[in-house]
Amino acid sequence: MKINKVLLILCVSWVLYGTLRVLFFRWLEQAPAPRPGLLLSAYREGQLGGMWVGLYADQHYEVRSSVNGHISRQGLYTLTSDTLKLLDMQRRPKLQYLVDPPLLWMIPKFSGSSFLEIQVNQLPKGSPPNKERL
Predict the structure, then answer these.
(1) pTM for this structure?
(2) Range 41-65 average pLDDT
(3) Strand (E) positions, the chain?
């Protein structure tokens, strides 16, 4: 009788652990919440977590990982026609993308996932906002 109770407790614990683990990892994979002034939001899921890119009206960008939700890269951006360039705070180039809704393609393409899915797109057509600041 005691063995049956122990086995039942172990089975219930294992199922509960598995359920909580799945829910926790799904929560981690969600795109982080952006700050106000968001013009473009793009996201992709990966094996080790997702990647989120947000462009803001003040010419700043953020790149976040869904593993911890922290900002992994930030700086300024320029948008010329359909080419998006992400720069560090000293205006040195870091990443470059081709804006081709509904996707944001990384240039050059690396192995694996080289695109993000655009979720929010309020970028002006043709030229970046606040062009005089670039």
Answers:
(1) 0.64
(2) 87
(3) 38-44, 51-56, 60-65, 71-80, 83-87, 93-100, 103-107, 115-121
